[in-house]
Amino acid sequence: MAFSPMLISFQSIIGQPKAKQFLAGSFARQKTAHAYLFRGPAGVGKKTCALAFAALINCAAPVNGDVCGHCPSCVKYHSGNHPDLLLIEPQGTANALKIDQIRELKKTLIYPPFEARFRVVLIKDIHLTMRRKEVTNSLLKTLEEPPADTVFILTGDEAGDILPTILSRCQIVPFYPLPYAQVTQALQRHDHIEEQTAASLAAISEGSLGRARLLHQEGLLPLRREIMQNLLALSPGTPDAVQAVFQLAEKAADTKENLEELLDLITIWFRDIMLAHQDLTGLVINNDLHDLLPAACRRWGHDELTGKLQRISLARRQLLHNCNRTLVCEVLFFGLL
Fold first, then answer.
1. What is the mean pLDDT of residues 81-104?
2. pLDDT tens for residues 292-311?
3. DSSP conformational letter for 174
4. pTM of this prediction exceeds 0.85
5. Does residue 109 sit within a domain?
6. Domain encompassing residue 148
């Protein structure tokens, strides 16, 4: 059966065969639970799979365990305008659910769905809410006594803390990193990224298609290359080095919330140099920086690289304490020369 390229369906989701098989099976057996927790790394398809499952349980004419793609419900899910899909996401600088969001949800749940068999409530990144007891307790009460016509789908990071009381009220569906080859193919096919860069993104993102796309869209790989090329070409203490470091620090600070990702990329690059020193180039994952590897090995020894990794760790701690981003980057890049 032909699907629209953008149709939300299990068929359109890359990887996660066990999760898709489990969800399709529970629907086929009419064993849809009142609450699910999709748990796994960021960017591996949890939200997309939640939307596909929501569309399936409300599809008027499912085909082979997937949506038909043509009924009124599927059309509305496809357009993102289904009245019985409620998406609740963390808000504000604290990046967490707010009590007002849960209170508003409870008001909505008093009434039956507008038109669907099931109202679906998708709550993203539940692990970010665990420190807010008021929100957590209110949500727990809702999960304990859910309306018969409502299905909750929570998504959470595999490493995040989630209360046992929430875990006990949900059917847990695990999600896993995607095979690097699948991420590479998806980046080439859908994002039109050339193979070498796509392979680097797949490896650096550790099988997270979402993270790979973020790195590409924010231009972090070209910025990482620019920083590394400059650090290799400059000599400490020279006027050219001072001017170049100031410029690079400003560019790095301009990445704002993506600065952590940039520091991750630099960390992984120094790790690759250390591997090359041990004749383990087969484990190097920055495939697009292979041309810089010989010069980097000549420039920095193992002990120097260890010191540079410590400097990056210090920069991370300073950023957590809201130190000036540009100043942190200046000090870091001078230390990495």
1. 85
2. 999 999 999 999 999 999 99
3. E
4. no
5. yes
6. 10-174
